[in-house]
Design a protein that fits this description.
The complex is a heterodimer.
Chain A (H helix, E strand, L loop, with lengths): L2 E4 L2 E4 L5 E7 L12 E6 L6 E5 L3 E2 L7 E6 L2 E6 L8 E7 L6 E2 L3 E5 L1
Parallel strand pairs in A: 2-11
Antiparallel strand pairs in A: 1-3, 3-8, 4-5, 4-9, 5-6, 7-8, 9-10, 9-11
Chain B lengths: L2 E5 L2 E3 L5 E8 L8 E6 L5 E7 L5 E4 L7 E6 L4 E6 L8 E8 L10 E4 L3 E5 L2
Parallel strand pairs in B: 2-11
Antiparallel strand pairs in B: 1-3, 3-8, 4-5, 4-9, 5-6, 7-8, 9-10, 9-11
The chains are: A mainly beta, B mainly beta.
């Protein structure tokens, strides 16, 4: 399954919203009925960390300004108000079918 | 604190083998699916392989199939990645990742990542 993210670069002014799109070449709906689409962020010099799982569930400790939505083949990660600490590369990943695959990554930077 | 820690990386010649280890701490491995993900410095993430709580192998990336083998020892709280016939293109930082579930279905979420262990393939 091919995962395609856009944009690949995202300059954002602090306090403004941001949105990243992720599209898959096949449906990510699992037999359980959930969409197996996760979002990760890799901050500079750090390991990736889970933001959103199963399309829209926030991981523990993730601020509520982050939200995930979508189903089937189209998904979106939204940040309601970007903060300086949100700088990093954001990846979507499908886990409905092996080999699991990641998007190319979207680099969020502060204007 | 729930953590995973990778080890076993290093410099190896093309065609040789290396075994990576992932030690689990703060939890018992028994109930959780585990994965290996790699990243070439400055590049994106690539899933390498995954294994369910009871040692069913979920699969391998096409790029490593037939050369890499994932396994686990729940009694020792370790997951392993045996890498044979290493190639220059296998050079990367290898992360061990813990699922919040068994590795099959629900629950699902790759919530714990290690710091990675670097594999350098060079003659």
């Amino acid at each position: 399954i091919v995962m395609t993210q856009s944009p690949l670069s995202l300059p954002v002014t602090p306090g403004e919203p941001a949105s990243i799109s992720c599209r898959s070449s096949q449906s990510l709906v699992h037999s359980h009925g959930y969409s197996f689409l996760d979002w990760f962020v890799q901050k500079p010099g750090q390991s990736p960390q889970l933001l959103i799982y199963l399309g829209s569930d926030r991981a523990s400790g993730v601020p509520d300004r982050f939200s995930g939505s979508g189903s089937g083949t189209n998904f979106t990660l939204k940040i309601s108000r970007v903060e300086a600490e949100d700088v990093g590369v954001y990846y979507c990943m499908q886990a409905v079918q092996t080999p699991y695959t990641f998007g190319q990554g979207t680099k969020l930077e502060i204007k | 604190e729930v953590q995973v820690e990778e080890s076993g990386g290093g410099l190896v010649q093309p065609g040789r083998s290396l075994r990576l280890s992932c030690a689990a701490s703060g939890f018992t491995l028994d109930n959780y699916g585990m994965h290996w993900v790699r990243q070439v410095p400055g590049k994106g993430l690539e899933w390498v392989s995954g294994i369910t709580w009871n040692s069913d192998v979920l699969g391998y990336a096409d790029s490593v199939k037939g050369r890499f083998t994932i396994s686990r020892d729940n009694a020792k709280n370790y997951v392993y990645l045996q890498m044979n016939s290493l190639r220059v293109e296998d050079m990367a930082l290898y992360y061990c990742v813990k699922d919040i579930g068994s590795g099959l279905g629900i629950p699902h979420g790759w919530g714990v990542w290690g710091q990675g262990t670097a594999v350098i393939v060079s003659s």
